[in-house]
Amino acid sequence: MFRTKALRLLGIIMSVLLFAGCSSGAEDPAEPTLLLGFSQIGTESAWRIGNTRDIQNSAQNFGVSLMLENANQSQENQIAAIRRFIAYKVDVIAFSPIVEDGWDNVLMEAKEAGIPVILVDRDIETTKEGLTTCLIGADFYNEGVMAAEYLIRKADDLGLDHVNIVEITGTENSTPMRQRQAGFADTIAGDERMCILESIDGDFLKSRGAECMRYLLETYGDDIDVVFSHNDEMTLGALPEIENVGLNPGSDIIIISIDGGQEAIDVLKEGRINCVVECTPNLGNELMETALRLKAGETVEEVIHPQERIFSDEQDLSNLEPRGY
Ligand code: GZL
């Protein structure tokens, strides 16, 4: 018994020394270069989850201390989070506004507190000057243009003389919804073959995408030639509804989507989606670089747009690198 006890005690002493040795060698974490408050919309899509992950990774890589708050799709929660960042006296505030209007009061409070604000992904609508310093996000209007330019090429290839389109839009009054819709509509406006039967709000959600598609099929049935969906989640919700009525998405109905996440690209490769316009969620590095430049008192560009492309059934996608979101 004694021998066993002695061995057990020796084991405990050894493990304590080993642990102490490991922890004593750890360097003190470097002082954060900057305290950044970020209000994220929620987790409504693979795009949004990828955007959050990228921002967290970039903060770590840049040594930025990140206070990230998830608003769960609520503007009220975003406004409350921005007020907490102000009270906490962060160096810089960043947020992705769920809708464009209703930000003047809280952004005036940030301005009066002397805290610069960066818009990430989406824009705001305001008549007041100087509420924000920079917008880092996609050129959504061009995404709509690229979607429409693909459709015009597709209609030419198929020799279509009339094209009935249904549009499932993102969150009403959000920047991506407004600008994707405008870019698409402006581009097809000159093409007499094109007719938008109806636009309906799917709120960027998979479940709403399914509900919208069910309604559109019940209303327009076989007359639908094209679905233009403002994000992959709604597209992926819509596809089973099309198949449930015996139609083949990608052949009976042309499917055009936006975001470019892995799941949609895989479905594109299967031939059930025809075109996916890329909207990169990887905005973290630009956000950290811009926030650090603001803290250093530098001026920054007013708008930073990432480069984006389309993926479609016109291309060989067999060697496409993993999308990462
Ligand atoms: C686009 C982003 C949109 C995505 C959706 O930059 O705001 O919000 O297209 C996401 O997937 O919900």
How would you characterize the overall build of this protein?
- The chain has 325 residues and is α/β, with parallel strands linked by helices.
- It has two domains: 34-138 and 281-307, Rossmann fold; 140-279, Response regulator (Rossmann fold, 3-Layer(aba) Sandwich).
- The chain contains ten helices and twelve strands.
- It has helices at 2-25, 46-62, 75-87, 104-112, 140-158, 175-188, 206-220, 232-244, 262-270, 284-295, and strands at 34-40, 64-70, 92-95, 117-120, 134-136, 163-169, 194-201, 226-229, 254-259, 275-278, 303-304, 310-312.
- The strands form two sheets. It has a six-stranded parallel β-sheet with strand order 2-1-3-4-5-11, with helices on both faces. Strands 7-6-8-9-10-12 form a six-stranded mixed β-sheet, with helices on both faces.
- Strand 6 (163-169), helix 6 (175-188) and strand 7 (194-201) form a beta-alpha-beta unit.
- Helix 2 packs across helix 10, helix 3 (75-87) packs parallel to helix 4 (104-112) and helix 5 packs parallel to helix 6 (175-188).
- Mean pLDDT is 93; it is low at 15-28.
- Bound molecules: beta-D-galactofuranose.
- The site of beta-D-galactofuranose has 15 residues, from helix 2 and strand 9.
